[in-house]
What does this fold into?
Amino acid sequence: MNPPWERFFEHLAIEKGLAANTCEAYRRDLSHFARYLEEEGIDLGQVREVEIASYLYKLRREGLSARSMGRAISCMRGFFRFSLREGLLSYDPTSHLESPQFRAKLPFALSEEEVERLLSAPAGQRPREMRDKAMIEILYATGMRVSELVGLSLQSVDLTVGYVRCMGKGSKERIVPLGSSAITHLKSYLESSRPRLLGGRLSSHLFVGPSGRPLTRQCFWQMIRRLALKAGISKKVTPHTLRHSFATHLLERGADIRSVQMMLGHSDISTTQIYTHITKDRLKEIHRRHHPRA
It folds into this structure.
């Protein structure tokens, strides 16, 4: 890729501080656009509205979803605005481009009874079981993302005060309460399970495997699916399911949305507001089932 592209990626990573996964998604989108321009013999400085429209038409023909189209448009907008501002290009062909409208997909949450069954699944006293128990307890107690969970260090938790400090998207730090149950199981893991897993090795990571290395996201995904099956939950359960359940159950029990927003680490409250739709749908279902004249 030529300098304008690379300068934009540096801007995203260093100046805007976007997460590595977000930067990688933008790189994929722009790489695809760059290949299209190369195939069509179009120089980057010659791109106008008609070239953008042709490219988006090509994406639509390829079956790209509205959400992915929206991200591609957002990516190109950001790139051309940056390039114009920095003097790398002389024209922004996306200035009048509108994003496609799409209905946000409602996140899936477990019921409180299903969460209890899931949390009870790792019931043994072996090191891995105690670690798994502590991890899912913390995930449900805090609503953090799986990447935040596996990235925790020993210094991230304060069991005396009862909070965890995690690093979210865009390297934004937030502090979330742990709750008594999560604290109890985390203490047991730290005192008994973690030393046995390390076997005399040293590590700054909070959650480790038998090799002493930090647990990966893939390992945790496999673990939570296995526990869901053990708990008799036929639905597809992922780490994000517990995050959704955390937010949904807090709002159902009367928590204010601003507090939930802070604990989830959402920069925009509109992202958190999607959970209010879930609670409204559940209230409607409860009313339909139990009201005598529903």
